[in-house]
Amino acid sequence: MQSQDVAPRHALTSKNSGPVEVEQAEAALVEHYPRLVRIAYLVLPSSGGRSRRVLTAHALVQRALPRGRGQRSAIPAQASGGAGDPGYAFLRERVLRTALEAARPRKGLPRLSQLPPLLPQVWGLRLFPRSGGADELALDQRLSALSGPARAAYVLRGLEKLSDAEIRGLLTAAGVDDAGGALASANGVPTQPVLLSSAEFDPCLLQARPTDLMRRRQHTKAALAAAAALAVCGALLALPGDGWGPDGAAAPVYAENPSAEAALDPARLIRVSPVDWESAARTDFSVWPARGPLTGDTALLRRALAVWARPGATVRVSATPGTQTGGPAGPPQLLYAGQVDNARLVLLYDGLRIARYAEPVDGTQGAALDLARVDGATGAEANALVLGRSDGNVRYLTAPWVKKAASRDLTKPDAAATPLTLTDGITGPLGSPALRPGSCTSWTVLQLTDASGTELTTDLGELVPARLTAGRPGSAGAASGRAGLTAWAPFACSLQAERSAGVRSVNAWAFADQPLPDGSGAAGWVCTRAETWRGDGTAALAQFRTPGAAVGAAVARGTDARACGPRDPHVLAGVLWKSAAGHWYLLAAGDKDTASIQAGGGVTAAGQGQFLVARAEKGAQASLKGTLVDGTEVSGLR
C-alpha cells in the first residue's frame, strides 16, 4: 500500500486533553451539531422570544470554530457527553462561553454574542421548536427564572450527565465567577433529562409561521404605523393586573369572517347537561358535560378559542401525528375549564379533535395548545383525557360514566390495583411511564370501571391515553382480566416504543408457546400491535420470552403491516436463540392456523405445523415464509 503525503494540519490545544486538530473539531461540529445547538438554546435567556433564541443558538454554534490558532480549552477529553471526543469538548466549552455572554446583562458596548445574529437569517418567517406539553412549559418557566450559569449547570447535569466537579470546572473555564453558586441554584430544579431531550427544546426540529402577511404588503409608512400599534398593544399586555388581552396569546385577526367570529364567542360554546349521557345512544365525547370551576370565566374561554383559531408566535402548539391544527369550523363543545397545578386549562371538542389550552397562572407568556384526533372514539376510547403532567405524575379527566379509578403496575399481574380518588371526574395523580427517565422497571396504567366493566389505559405522552386490550385480533377484549394481565406483564415496557405516535389502542396476543430444543421448557410468543387514530403508522411487534425470564424481547417489527391485526389475524416470526449448552438455533413460530414454515437465506430449513427449529450459526440471517391451513401464504415479520 503506497503512502501519501499529508499536508500539515492546524491544531487547537486543550489543557487537559492535549492537541485538538482543526479537522477533528470540524468533524465534531458536524457530528454533534444538534446537541450543541440544544445546549446553546437551553442556556440562552427566553426574554428575546423563541424565534430569536433559535437563530442565536445556531449562530453561536456556527461561530464556535476559532479563527486563529493557540486557542485553549480546559475540558478533559474523557468527560461524558461527547463520548471522549476532545473536539466536542473544545466546542462545548466555546458554545457555553458565548451563550453565557449572551445571557449576561449588557454593560457598555455589547459583545458580539449579545447582538442579534447576522447569520443565519430567515426573512418573512418565524422559526420555533415544536411545542411540548404542560411539563415542558413548566420546566421552561423554571429555567427562565434561573441565571445563565445556573441554567448551564442544570443542562450539563441533566443533558450531558456530568458530575458536579466536571460542571464546576467547565463553568469556571467558560468564565463563570461563582460556579458553586450556579450549581446550588440548579439544584433547586428537579433533574428531568427526558424533558431536556424533548422536541420542545430542539432548535433543529422547527415549525415555521409567517410574520404579518398583510403588513408586509403595505408601504413603509403604513408598516411603521402598524408596528407602532403592535408595540403599544404589547406594552399594554405587559402592564400589571390581569395581563391577558381579550385574545390572549392569539395572533392578530387577519380576516373578517362571520363564521370564524361565531366560533370564537364563548356564549356559543356547546354545553352538555350532566345527565344527558345517561339516555344517550352513544358513549363518546359528545355527551361529556362541561366541568370545572372556571366554566363561567368568559375571558379565559375567549382566549382559549382565539388561540385555537390563531395561535401566536409565542404559543407552543403540539398535535398528534395526522391531526389538523386549524381552528374549529363552528362553536366547539366545552369539556372542562379549571386550574390544575400552576396552569389554567380549557378542554374543547369539535367532533373530530380534542383541544387543550393551557396558560400559566402567573404571567402572560407561555400559553400552550395541544390537539389530538378522536374521530370515532366511543366507549373505552372515550373514557379519559390527560389534564396535565408534573413531577413525573399525570392527572386525568374521566368520562361521566366512570365510577371508579385505580392505578396498576402492568408488570405485576398479581398485585392489586391502588384506588385513586375521583373529584368531579378528575383523578388523583398517578405515575406516568411517559415521563419516567432511564431504564423501564415498571409500567403504571390507569384502570377505570363503569357499568359495563373494567378497562386499562396508558399514558403514551399524548392528550388521549391509549386503550390496552388482549386476545386474538378480531375478538380481543379488555386487558384487565387475568389472561390479559398475564399476557401483558413481560412485555409492558415495550410500550415505550409507541410514545408520541398518535396511538389509539395496543393489543397483546399470546399466539404460541414453543417447546425449546434443549428440553428447558416452552418459550412464549406474543404479538403486540398498536393502532393509530389516523389509520396508517400501525406497528406490530413480535416478542419472545424464554422460560423464567422476567421480560420478553422484541425480535421482529412490522410497520403499516396487516399482520397481527383485525384484517389479517395471523403472524409469523423467528429468532436466533442460544441454548444453555452453547448451541445456536433458529426458532420460528406462527399462530395455530399455520400449516408449515420455510426458512431461507442464512438458514435453510422447513417444517410442518406452527413451529420450526433448525440449527444455525451465530449471526445468521434468515427469511421466513409460512403457509396457512387454507393455503394462504404469509411472510415473517422482520
Task: Describe the structure concisely.
By secondary structure, the chain is α+β, with helices and mostly antiparallel strands. It has 15 helices and 32 strands.
Salient structural properties:
28% strand, disordered N terminus, ten-stranded mixed β-sheet, alpha+beta, 15 helices, 32 strands, 638 residues, five-stranded mixed β-sheet, single chain
Summarize the topology.
Blueprint: E1 11-14, E2 18-21, H1 22-31, H2 33-43, H3 50-62, E3 72-73, H4 86-103, E4 125-129, H5 134-144, H6 148-158, H7 164-173, H8 179-186, H9 193-196, E5 206-210, H10 213-216, H11 220-237, H12 258-263, H13 276-279, H14 298-309, E6 316-319, E7 333-340, E8 343-349, E9 353-360, E10 368-373, E11 384-390, E12 393-398, E13 404-409, E14 418-420, E15 422-423, E16 426-427, E17 430-431, E18 444-450, E19 453-458, E20 466-470, E21 477-478, H15 482-488, E22 503-515, E23 522-532, E24 539-545, E25 553-559, E26 572-578, E27 584-590, E28 594-601, E29 605-608, E30 611-615, E31 622-628, E32 633-635
Parallel strand pairs: 1-3, 6-10, 20-22
Antiparallel strand pairs: 1-2, 4-5, 7-8, 8-9, 9-10, 11-12, 12-17, 13-14, 13-18, 15-16, 18-19, 19-20, 20-21, 22-23, 23-24, 24-25, 26-27, 27-30, 28-29, 28-31, 31-32
